[in-house]
């Protein structure tokens, strides 16, 4: 097991990482602080993702958490500690939000698919973290919330991830009401892919990850990147872009192998090229 330490030398790790059968499971390990996205947690996650991006042995990622809270979002104690700065915290707030935005973007741009395994609560930037993952599995008692509006702070940055995953009215309902959304409703809204019995989200997410890991990395990597890129385009541009990417995919060795395997009625043998 690889440990990603907190910012202070000798501090307890805030994130653990383990790789099995091509699946890397990252676990938020700060349950005593509700797995908040502190500076140390964001740094550890960003570092881990950077390493995973360059690691060809990792074919899929599962993001889980210790304790009853998946993540409560930003560390409010760290935020409030800078209210007394000369600029009332403006520079610090901008830096923290920039780091958080970069972390969420890194998940989206990671070559490997990322699956959230959610038990308990995911609030504010913690909910944003779930929405930023490519897929999400939730235990039946998991709950989600963007409560910023209730404390005078609209969840602007979580809004970016939510609005790209949910319908507009569903996203705005969460953002404007700041109320809890239970797992079945989160599934109906499209925030999570599956709801499973309590305590089994991690196992279910790892099973999905293993199924993805069994495929060639070529179409998975190209497909994930193309999915997010075409979402930002108009219809004509999206089809033109997708056609270019699919042409390149067709020229890959594994595409030739996969099609040949279908025609020859045999299992494919992937070389990830």
Automatic annotation (TrEMBL):
Q: What does this protein do?
A: May play a role in fatty acid biosynthesis and insulin sensitivity.
Give the highest taxon in the source lineage: Bacteria
List the keywords (alphabetical): Fatty acid metabolism, Lipid metabolism, Lyase, Transit peptide
GO biological process entries = fatty acid metabolic process
Protein's organism = Xanthobacter tagetidis
UniProt cross-references to InterPro entries, sorted A to Z? ClpP/crotonase-like_dom_sf, Enoyl-CoA_hydra/iso, Enoyl-CoA_hydra_C, Mitochondrial_ECH-domain
For this chain, the family text in UniProt reads: Belongs to the enoyl-CoA hydratase/isomerase family.
Q: Taxonomic classification, please? A: Bacteria, Pseudomonadati, Pseudomonadota, Alphaproteobacteria, Hyphomicrobiales
Please identify the protein, giving its name as recorded. Enoyl-CoA hydratase domain-containing protein 3, mitochondrial
What molecular function does GO assign, one term?
A: hydro-lyase activity
